[in-house]
UniProtKB/TrEMBL annotation:
Name of the protein in question: Diaminopimelate decarboxylase
Organism: Dactylococcopsis salina (strain PCC 8305) (Myxobactron salinum)
Domain of life: Bacteria
Record lineage: Bacteria, Bacillati, Cyanobacteriota, Cyanophyceae, Nodosilineales
Keywords: Amino-acid biosynthesis, Decarboxylase, Lyase, Lysine biosynthesis, Pyridoxal phosphate
GO MF assignments: diaminopimelate decarboxylase activity; pyridoxal phosphate binding
Binding site for substrate: 285, 322, 326, 354, 382
Residue numbers binding pyridoxal 5'-phosphate: 240, 282-285, 382
Subunit-structure text: Homodimer.
UniProt record similarity statement: Belongs to the Orn/Lys/Arg decarboxylase class-II family. LysA subfamily.
Length: 433
Protein backbone atom coordinates (compact mmCIF):
# COMPACT_ATOMS: atom_id res chain seq x y z
CA UNK A 1 0.00 0.00 0.00
CA UNK A 2 2.86 2.41 0.67
CA UNK A 3 3.88 4.59 -2.28
CA UNK A 4 7.43 3.33 -2.52
CA UNK A 5 9.91 3.04 -5.34
CA UNK A 6 13.63 2.75 -5.91
CA UNK A 7 15.24 5.80 -7.51
CA UNK A 8 18.19 5.80 -9.89
CA UNK A 9 20.66 6.10 -7.01
CA UNK A 10 19.36 2.76 -5.78
CA UNK A 11 17.70 4.48 -2.81
CA UNK A 12 14.27 3.78 -1.39
CA UNK A 13 11.77 6.56 -1.97
CA UNK A 14 8.52 6.95 -0.05
CA UNK A 15 6.03 9.56 -1.22
CA UNK A 16 8.68 10.55 -3.77
CA UNK A 17 11.13 11.44 -0.98
CA UNK A 18 14.53 9.72 -0.78
CA UNK A 19 14.54 8.02 2.63
CA UNK A 20 18.32 8.29 3.00
CA UNK A 21 18.11 12.03 2.34
CA UNK A 22 15.26 12.39 4.84
CA UNK A 23 17.44 10.85 7.52
CA UNK A 24 20.21 13.32 6.70
CA UNK A 25 17.79 16.20 6.86
CA UNK A 26 15.66 15.24 9.88
CA UNK A 27 17.97 13.03 11.93
CA UNK A 28 18.07 9.34 12.73
CA UNK A 29 16.08 7.33 13.66
CA UNK A 30 13.09 8.80 11.86
CA UNK A 31 9.47 7.72 11.53
CA UNK A 32 8.20 8.34 7.99
CA UNK A 33 4.46 8.32 7.25
CA UNK A 34 3.07 8.22 3.73
CA UNK A 35 0.09 10.54 3.34
CA UNK A 36 -1.22 8.98 0.16
CA UNK A 37 -1.51 5.51 1.63
CA UNK A 38 -3.15 6.81 4.83
CA UNK A 39 -5.76 8.58 2.71
CA UNK A 40 -6.23 5.45 0.61
CA UNK A 41 -6.83 3.28 3.68
CA UNK A 42 -9.30 5.86 5.06
CA UNK A 43 -11.29 5.87 1.84
CA UNK A 44 -11.25 2.07 1.59
CA UNK A 45 -12.81 1.85 5.04
CA UNK A 46 -15.25 4.71 4.44
CA UNK A 47 -16.40 3.50 1.04
CA UNK A 48 -16.25 -0.16 2.07
CA UNK A 49 -18.97 0.42 4.66
CA UNK A 50 -20.96 2.81 2.45
CA UNK A 51 -20.99 0.41 -0.49
CA UNK A 52 -22.20 -2.60 1.47
CA UNK A 53 -24.45 -1.11 4.11
CA UNK A 54 -27.79 0.56 3.48
CA UNK A 55 -27.88 2.37 6.83
CA UNK A 56 -25.74 5.22 8.11
CA UNK A 57 -22.10 4.36 8.82
CA UNK A 58 -19.04 5.94 10.37
CA UNK A 59 -15.43 4.86 10.55
CA UNK A 60 -13.59 6.11 13.61
CA UNK A 61 -9.82 5.88 13.72
CA UNK A 62 -8.51 4.16 16.87
CA UNK A 63 -5.90 6.79 17.54
CA UNK A 64 -4.02 4.70 20.13
CA UNK A 65 -2.25 3.29 17.07
CA UNK A 66 -0.68 6.71 16.43
CA UNK A 67 -1.99 9.92 17.89
CA UNK A 68 -0.64 13.38 17.12
CA UNK A 69 -2.18 16.62 15.86
CA UNK A 70 -1.32 16.16 12.20
CA UNK A 71 -2.62 12.62 11.99
CA UNK A 72 -5.89 13.42 13.77
CA UNK A 73 -6.38 16.33 11.36
CA UNK A 74 -5.53 14.21 8.33
CA UNK A 75 -7.90 11.40 9.24
CA UNK A 76 -10.58 13.94 10.13
CA UNK A 77 -10.20 15.56 6.71
CA UNK A 78 -11.11 12.18 5.22
CA UNK A 79 -14.42 12.28 7.07
CA UNK A 80 -13.46 9.75 9.73
CA UNK A 81 -14.15 10.16 13.41
CA UNK A 82 -11.62 9.45 16.18
CA UNK A 83 -11.57 6.87 18.97
CA UNK A 84 -9.66 8.13 21.98
CA UNK A 85 -8.64 6.09 25.00
CA UNK A 86 -7.47 8.76 27.42
CA UNK A 87 -7.80 12.43 28.27
CA UNK A 88 -4.52 13.01 26.43
CA UNK A 89 -5.73 11.43 23.20
CA UNK A 90 -9.01 13.36 23.54
CA UNK A 91 -7.16 16.62 24.12
CA UNK A 92 -5.02 16.04 21.03
CA UNK A 93 -8.03 15.21 18.83
CA UNK A 94 -9.85 18.34 20.02
CA UNK A 95 -6.78 20.51 19.46
CA UNK A 96 -6.60 19.09 15.93
CA UNK A 97 -10.10 20.40 15.31
CA UNK A 98 -11.99 17.10 15.32
CA UNK A 99 -15.74 17.52 15.82
CA UNK A 100 -16.70 15.95 19.20
CA UNK A 101 -19.79 14.51 17.47
CA UNK A 102 -17.34 12.10 15.85
CA UNK A 103 -15.22 11.35 18.91
CA UNK A 104 -15.75 8.19 20.99
CA UNK A 105 -14.03 7.94 24.36
CA UNK A 106 -12.91 4.46 25.49
CA UNK A 107 -11.17 3.11 28.56
CA UNK A 108 -11.75 0.72 31.44
CA UNK A 109 -10.81 3.21 34.14
CA UNK A 110 -11.53 6.75 33.05
CA UNK A 111 -10.86 9.24 35.79
CA UNK A 112 -13.49 11.69 37.02
CA UNK A 113 -11.50 14.47 35.36
CA UNK A 114 -11.51 12.58 32.07
CA UNK A 115 -15.26 12.02 32.27
CA UNK A 116 -15.76 15.73 32.93
CA UNK A 117 -13.54 16.58 29.98
CA UNK A 118 -15.62 14.25 27.79
CA UNK A 119 -18.95 15.66 28.97
CA UNK A 120 -17.76 19.18 28.49
CA UNK A 121 -16.80 18.62 24.85
CA UNK A 122 -19.87 16.51 24.10
CA UNK A 123 -18.20 13.41 22.69
CA UNK A 124 -19.70 9.94 23.10
CA UNK A 125 -18.48 8.05 26.14
CA UNK A 126 -18.14 4.30 25.78
CA UNK A 127 -19.06 3.21 29.30
CA UNK A 128 -17.07 0.23 30.43
CA UNK A 129 -18.27 -0.57 33.96
CA UNK A 130 -20.69 0.24 36.76
CA UNK A 131 -18.50 2.77 38.50
CA UNK A 132 -18.26 4.79 35.33
CA UNK A 133 -21.95 4.57 34.51
CA UNK A 134 -22.97 5.63 38.01
CA UNK A 135 -20.43 8.45 38.06
CA UNK A 136 -21.78 9.71 34.74
CA UNK A 137 -25.37 9.57 35.98
CA UNK A 138 -24.42 11.42 39.18
CA UNK A 139 -22.95 14.40 37.32
CA UNK A 140 -26.40 15.61 36.33
CA UNK A 141 -24.84 17.55 33.47
CA UNK A 142 -27.02 20.18 31.81
CA UNK A 143 -27.04 18.13 28.64
CA UNK A 144 -27.41 14.34 28.84
CA UNK A 145 -24.01 12.81 27.94
CA UNK A 146 -24.07 10.40 25.02
CA UNK A 147 -23.25 6.97 26.36
CA UNK A 148 -22.48 3.77 24.53
CA UNK A 149 -22.18 0.45 26.33
CA UNK A 150 -19.08 -1.70 25.97
CA UNK A 151 -19.97 -5.35 26.33
CA UNK A 152 -17.56 -8.29 26.54
CA UNK A 153 -18.97 -10.46 23.80
CA UNK A 154 -17.39 -13.79 24.79
CA UNK A 155 -15.85 -14.32 21.37
CA UNK A 156 -12.44 -15.93 21.07
CA UNK A 157 -10.07 -15.10 18.27
CA UNK A 158 -6.58 -16.17 17.36
CA UNK A 159 -4.10 -13.47 18.20
CA UNK A 160 -1.47 -12.73 20.81
CA UNK A 161 -2.94 -13.14 24.30
CA UNK A 162 -1.94 -9.59 25.31
CA UNK A 163 -4.11 -8.09 22.60
CA UNK A 164 -7.18 -10.32 22.91
CA UNK A 165 -10.13 -8.55 24.47
CA UNK A 166 -13.31 -10.36 23.49
CA UNK A 167 -13.00 -13.40 25.78
CA UNK A 168 -15.10 -13.33 28.91
CA UNK A 169 -12.32 -12.84 31.45
CA UNK A 170 -11.04 -9.71 29.69
CA UNK A 171 -10.75 -6.61 31.88
CA UNK A 172 -12.81 -4.60 29.39
CA UNK A 173 -16.51 -4.02 29.27
CA UNK A 174 -19.61 -5.31 30.99
CA UNK A 175 -19.97 -9.03 31.37
CA UNK A 176 -22.98 -10.22 29.31
CA UNK A 177 -24.65 -11.34 32.57
CA UNK A 178 -24.67 -7.75 33.78
CA UNK A 179 -26.25 -6.30 30.67
CA UNK A 180 -29.95 -6.80 31.59
CA UNK A 181 -29.33 -4.99 34.87
CA UNK A 182 -27.44 -2.21 33.09
CA UNK A 183 -30.23 -1.75 30.53
CA UNK A 184 -32.74 -1.64 33.36
CA UNK A 185 -30.64 1.05 35.07
CA UNK A 186 -30.54 3.04 31.84
CA UNK A 187 -34.32 2.96 31.45
CA UNK A 188 -34.56 4.59 34.88
CA UNK A 189 -31.83 7.14 34.28
CA UNK A 190 -33.10 10.06 32.27
CA UNK A 191 -29.92 12.12 32.36
CA UNK A 192 -27.90 9.81 30.09
CA UNK A 193 -28.46 9.55 26.34
CA UNK A 194 -27.93 5.88 25.61
CA UNK A 195 -26.87 5.65 21.96
CA UNK A 196 -25.92 2.01 21.44
CA UNK A 197 -23.62 -0.93 21.99
CA UNK A 198 -19.95 -1.62 21.39
CA UNK A 199 -17.52 -4.52 21.56
CA UNK A 200 -13.91 -4.99 20.53
CA UNK A 201 -12.62 -8.53 20.27
CA UNK A 202 -8.90 -8.02 19.81
CA UNK A 203 -6.22 -6.86 17.47
CA UNK A 204 -4.14 -8.21 14.55
CA UNK A 205 -6.95 -10.63 13.61
CA UNK A 206 -6.84 -12.43 10.26
CA UNK A 207 -10.16 -14.26 10.38
CA UNK A 208 -13.43 -12.71 9.33
CA UNK A 209 -15.67 -15.04 11.28
CA UNK A 210 -15.21 -13.54 14.78
CA UNK A 211 -16.40 -10.11 13.62
CA UNK A 212 -19.31 -11.69 11.77
CA UNK A 213 -20.29 -13.55 14.95
CA UNK A 214 -19.88 -10.34 16.88
CA UNK A 215 -22.36 -8.59 14.62
CA UNK A 216 -25.03 -11.12 15.65
CA UNK A 217 -24.27 -10.71 19.36
CA UNK A 218 -24.39 -6.90 19.18
CA UNK A 219 -27.63 -6.79 17.21
CA UNK A 220 -29.20 -8.97 19.92
CA UNK A 221 -28.17 -6.50 22.61
CA UNK A 222 -29.37 -3.59 20.52
CA UNK A 223 -32.75 -5.23 20.13
CA UNK A 224 -32.94 -5.97 23.87
CA UNK A 225 -32.30 -2.28 24.56
CA UNK A 226 -34.83 -1.10 22.01
CA UNK A 227 -37.47 -3.40 23.43
CA UNK A 228 -37.06 -1.63 26.76
CA UNK A 229 -37.75 1.65 25.00
CA UNK A 230 -34.15 2.84 25.02
CA UNK A 231 -33.12 4.97 22.04
CA UNK A 232 -30.24 2.63 21.09
CA UNK A 233 -29.34 3.40 17.45
CA UNK A 234 -25.61 2.81 17.03
CA UNK A 235 -23.70 -0.45 16.72
CA UNK A 236 -19.92 -0.38 17.03
CA UNK A 237 -17.99 -3.53 16.10
CA UNK A 238 -14.60 -2.22 17.30
CA UNK A 239 -11.39 -2.64 15.34
CA UNK A 240 -8.93 -5.46 15.01
CA UNK A 241 -8.27 -6.18 11.35
CA UNK A 242 -4.70 -7.43 11.07
CA UNK A 243 -2.00 -6.29 8.66
CA UNK A 244 0.88 -7.93 6.85
CA UNK A 245 4.16 -7.44 8.71
CA UNK A 246 5.97 -10.32 7.01
CA UNK A 247 5.23 -12.71 4.14
CA UNK A 248 3.72 -15.16 6.63
CA UNK A 249 0.82 -12.78 7.37
CA UNK A 250 -2.25 -13.05 5.18
CA UNK A 251 -5.03 -10.75 6.39
CA UNK A 252 -8.20 -9.98 4.43
CA UNK A 253 -8.17 -6.63 2.62
CA UNK A 254 -9.97 -3.64 4.14
CA UNK A 255 -12.62 -3.97 1.46
CA UNK A 256 -13.16 -7.67 2.17
CA UNK A 257 -13.40 -6.99 5.88
CA UNK A 258 -15.82 -4.07 5.67
CA UNK A 259 -18.12 -5.90 3.29
CA UNK A 260 -18.14 -8.99 5.53
CA UNK A 261 -19.00 -6.87 8.58
CA UNK A 262 -21.63 -4.81 6.77
CA UNK A 263 -23.31 -7.92 5.44
CA UNK A 264 -23.25 -9.69 8.80
CA UNK A 265 -24.86 -6.72 10.55
CA UNK A 266 -27.47 -6.40 7.81
CA UNK A 267 -28.31 -10.09 8.00
CA UNK A 268 -28.57 -10.12 11.78
CA UNK A 269 -30.85 -7.07 11.65
CA UNK A 270 -33.07 -8.74 9.07
CA UNK A 271 -33.27 -11.92 11.11
CA UNK A 272 -34.11 -10.14 14.35
CA UNK A 273 -36.24 -7.48 12.65
CA UNK A 274 -34.23 -4.57 13.94
CA UNK A 275 -34.00 -1.45 11.77
CA UNK A 276 -30.45 -0.78 10.56
CA UNK A 277 -28.46 1.06 13.22
CA UNK A 278 -25.63 3.49 12.50
CA UNK A 279 -22.77 1.07 11.88
CA UNK A 280 -19.44 2.09 13.36
CA UNK A 281 -16.07 0.42 13.18
CA UNK A 282 -12.85 1.62 14.76
CA UNK A 283 -9.69 0.40 13.02
CA UNK A 284 -6.28 1.47 14.25
CA UNK A 285 -3.49 -0.75 12.98
CA UNK A 286 -4.99 -1.42 9.54
CA UNK A 287 -5.36 2.32 8.87
CA UNK A 288 -1.78 3.33 9.59
CA UNK A 289 0.37 0.23 10.19
CA UNK A 290 1.48 -0.35 6.64
CA UNK A 291 1.67 3.36 5.85
CA UNK A 292 4.75 4.07 7.97
CA UNK A 293 8.36 2.99 8.17
CA UNK A 294 11.20 3.65 10.57
CA UNK A 295 14.59 4.58 9.15
CA UNK A 296 17.64 3.91 11.32
CA UNK A 297 21.38 4.28 10.81
CA UNK A 298 23.49 1.17 11.10
CA UNK A 299 26.37 1.31 13.58
CA UNK A 300 28.36 -1.44 15.29
CA UNK A 301 28.68 -4.97 14.05
CA UNK A 302 29.45 -8.05 16.13
CA UNK A 303 30.20 -11.45 14.70
CA UNK A 304 29.72 -14.37 17.03
CA UNK A 305 31.60 -17.13 15.20
CA UNK A 306 29.33 -19.82 13.82
CA UNK A 307 26.30 -18.45 15.62
CA UNK A 308 25.24 -15.07 14.33
CA UNK A 309 26.14 -11.59 13.25
CA UNK A 310 24.58 -8.64 15.01
CA UNK A 311 24.21 -5.28 13.40
CA UNK A 312 23.16 -2.53 15.76
CA UNK A 313 20.98 0.45 14.90
CA UNK A 314 20.60 3.80 16.64
CA UNK A 315 17.17 3.04 18.15
CA UNK A 316 15.44 -0.09 19.38
CA UNK A 317 12.84 -1.07 21.94
CA UNK A 318 12.24 2.58 22.86
CA UNK A 319 10.94 3.49 19.40
CA UNK A 320 9.41 0.07 18.69
CA UNK A 321 8.35 -1.89 21.75
CA UNK A 322 6.46 -4.52 19.74
CA UNK A 323 9.24 -7.07 19.18
CA UNK A 324 10.17 -7.26 22.86
CA UNK A 325 6.56 -7.06 24.04
CA UNK A 326 4.81 -9.42 21.64
CA UNK A 327 7.67 -11.15 19.80
CA UNK A 328 6.39 -9.23 16.79
CA UNK A 329 8.20 -9.80 13.51
CA UNK A 330 9.16 -7.18 10.97
CA UNK A 331 10.82 -6.92 7.59
CA UNK A 332 13.79 -4.72 6.81
CA UNK A 333 15.80 -3.43 3.87
CA UNK A 334 18.76 -1.17 3.27
CA UNK A 335 17.31 2.12 2.10
CA UNK A 336 20.58 3.15 0.44
CA UNK A 337 21.32 -0.21 -1.20
CA UNK A 338 18.02 -1.22 -2.74
CA UNK A 339 19.60 -2.52 -5.94
CA UNK A 340 22.01 -4.85 -4.14
CA UNK A 341 21.06 -8.44 -3.47
CA UNK A 342 20.92 -9.92 -0.01
CA UNK A 343 24.12 -11.77 0.85
CA UNK A 344 23.96 -12.23 4.58
CA UNK A 345 21.58 -13.00 7.39
CA UNK A 346 21.97 -10.79 10.44
CA UNK A 347 20.24 -10.04 13.71
CA UNK A 348 19.17 -6.41 13.94
CA UNK A 349 19.80 -5.19 17.49
CA UNK A 350 18.80 -1.95 19.15
CA UNK A 351 21.14 0.15 21.31
CA UNK A 352 19.47 -0.34 24.68
CA UNK A 353 21.12 -1.92 27.71
CA UNK A 354 19.02 -5.00 27.45
CA UNK A 355 19.78 -8.29 25.69
CA UNK A 356 16.17 -8.64 24.57
CA UNK A 357 16.42 -5.40 22.63
CA UNK A 358 16.37 -7.10 19.25
CA UNK A 359 14.27 -5.61 16.47
CA UNK A 360 14.62 -8.47 13.97
CA UNK A 361 15.98 -11.92 14.78
CA UNK A 362 16.87 -12.86 11.26
CA UNK A 363 17.12 -10.33 8.44
CA UNK A 364 18.45 -11.01 4.96
CA UNK A 365 20.35 -7.97 3.80
CA UNK A 366 23.09 -6.92 1.39
CA UNK A 367 26.51 -6.56 3.01
CA UNK A 368 25.92 -3.88 5.62
CA UNK A 369 28.39 -1.27 6.81
CA UNK A 370 28.24 1.43 9.42
CA UNK A 371 26.34 4.43 8.07
CA UNK A 372 23.86 2.45 5.98
CA UNK A 373 20.17 3.35 6.27
CA UNK A 374 18.25 0.42 7.67
CA UNK A 375 14.53 0.63 7.05
CA UNK A 376 11.99 -1.39 9.03
CA UNK A 377 8.62 -1.47 7.30
CA UNK A 378 5.06 -1.43 8.65
CA UNK A 379 5.88 0.49 11.81
CA UNK A 380 3.08 3.05 11.43
CA UNK A 381 0.92 1.57 14.19
CA UNK A 382 1.88 1.15 17.85
CA UNK A 383 5.46 2.29 17.24
CA UNK A 384 5.60 5.97 18.13
CA UNK A 385 2.47 5.61 20.25
CA UNK A 386 4.20 3.09 22.52
CA UNK A 387 7.61 4.76 22.42
CA UNK A 388 9.51 5.50 25.60
CA UNK A 389 12.64 7.28 26.73
CA UNK A 390 14.27 4.14 28.10
CA UNK A 391 17.97 4.80 28.68
CA UNK A 392 17.04 8.42 28.06
CA UNK A 393 17.09 7.96 24.34
CA UNK A 394 15.43 10.76 22.44
CA UNK A 395 12.15 9.83 20.82
CA UNK A 396 12.59 10.11 17.05
CA UNK A 397 10.94 12.74 14.93
CA UNK A 398 8.16 11.88 12.48
CA UNK A 399 7.64 13.27 8.99
CA UNK A 400 4.69 13.09 6.64
CA UNK A 401 5.68 12.59 3.02
CA UNK A 402 3.57 13.40 -0.02
CA UNK A 403 4.57 13.94 -3.63
CA UNK A 404 8.15 14.84 -2.86
CA UNK A 405 7.46 17.05 0.16
CA UNK A 406 8.24 16.07 3.74
CA UNK A 407 6.55 17.90 6.61
CA UNK A 408 7.42 17.48 10.25
CA UNK A 409 4.57 15.87 12.23
CA UNK A 410 6.46 15.34 15.46
CA UNK A 411 9.72 17.05 16.25
CA UNK A 412 12.62 14.89 17.34
CA UNK A 413 13.15 15.27 21.10
CA UNK A 414 16.12 17.13 22.52
CA UNK A 415 18.17 16.64 25.67
CA UNK A 416 16.40 19.73 27.06
CA UNK A 417 13.07 17.93 26.55
CA UNK A 418 14.42 15.01 28.55
CA UNK A 419 15.01 17.06 31.66
CA UNK A 420 12.13 19.49 31.14
CA UNK A 421 10.01 17.81 33.82
CA UNK A 422 12.90 16.98 36.13
CA UNK A 423 13.10 18.90 39.39
CA UNK A 424 16.37 19.56 41.11
CA UNK A 425 15.77 19.96 44.87
CA UNK A 426 17.89 22.83 46.24
CA UNK A 427 19.45 20.70 48.97
CA UNK A 428 20.95 18.38 46.36
CA UNK A 429 22.70 21.17 44.52
CA UNK A 430 25.62 21.46 46.94
CA UNK A 431 27.20 18.17 47.67
CA UNK A 432 29.13 17.72 50.95
CA UNK A 433 31.48 14.85 50.79
N1 LIG B 1 -11.09 -0.24 19.62
C1 LIG B 1 -10.74 -0.58 20.86
C2 LIG B 1 -11.70 -0.46 21.94
C3 LIG B 1 -9.44 -1.05 21.10
O1 LIG B 1 -9.09 -1.39 22.33
C4 LIG B 1 -8.52 -1.15 20.03
C5 LIG B 1 -7.16 -1.61 20.25
C6 LIG B 1 -8.95 -0.76 18.75
C7 LIG B 1 -10.24 -0.32 18.58
C8 LIG B 1 -8.04 -0.80 17.55
O2 LIG B 1 -7.60 -2.06 17.26
P1 LIG B 1 -6.75 -2.31 15.92
O3 LIG B 1 -7.63 -2.00 14.75
O4 LIG B 1 -5.57 -1.41 15.96
O5 LIG B 1 -6.39 -3.73 16.01
N2 LIG B 1 -0.31 -2.46 21.31
C9 LIG B 1 -0.81 -3.62 20.61
C10 LIG B 1 -2.22 -3.45 20.13
C11 LIG B 1 -3.19 -3.11 21.24
C12 LIG B 1 -4.56 -2.85 20.73
C13 LIG B 1 -5.40 -2.25 21.80
N3 LIG B 1 -6.70 -1.91 21.40
C14 LIG B 1 0.13 -3.97 19.47
O6 LIG B 1 1.11 -3.25 19.26
O7 LIG B 1 -0.03 -4.97 18.79
Amino acid sequence: PITAKVNDRGHLEIGACDVTELVKQFGSPLYIMDEHSIRTACSQYRDGLKDHYQGESLVIYASKALNCLALCALVNSEGLGIDVASGGELYTALQAGVDPEKIYFHGNNKSVAELEQAIECGCTIVADNWLELKTLASFNANHAPKVMLRITPGIECHTHEYIRTGHLDSKFGFDPNQVPEVLDFLTKTSNLDFVGVHAHIGSQIFERQPHQDLAGVLVKWLKAAQELGLPARELNVGGGLGIRYTEADDPPSITEWTSAVAKAVTMACEQLQVSLPKLICEPGRSLVGNTGITAYTVGARKEVPEIRTYIAVDGGMSDNARPITYQAEYRSMLGNKMSETATETVTVAGKHCESGDILIQSASLPKTVSGDTLVITSTGAYGYSMASNYNRLLRPGMVLVYKGTADMMVERETYEDLIAQDKFPERLKTVDN
